[in-house]
Write a sequence for this structure.
């Protein structure tokens, strides 16, 4: 599923960024450019970060 349509970022990209150390929307912005165009993906990106705190990437992908 796409998280950020403007930049073509999917849940898998979010998982990979988290595995590489991303812990906040700001980290995802730096790594994947989420929220850099329209910003509508911020809440969805935050939701995915939260769910990845308790689930593995394999489950959410
Ligand atoms: S959907 Fe992510 S910046 Fe527009």
């Amino acid at each position: 599923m796409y998280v950020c349509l403007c930049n073509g970022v999917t849940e898998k990209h979010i998982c990979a960024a988290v595995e590489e150390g991303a812990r906040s929307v700001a980290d995802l912005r730096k790594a994947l450019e989420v929220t850099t165009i329209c910003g509508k993906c911020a809440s969805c990106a935050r939701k995915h970060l939260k769910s990845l705190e308790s689930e593995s990437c394999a489950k959410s992908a």
User: Anything to note?
Assistant: The radius of gyration is 10 Å. The chain is about 55% helix and 10% strand. The first helix runs from residue 11 to 19.
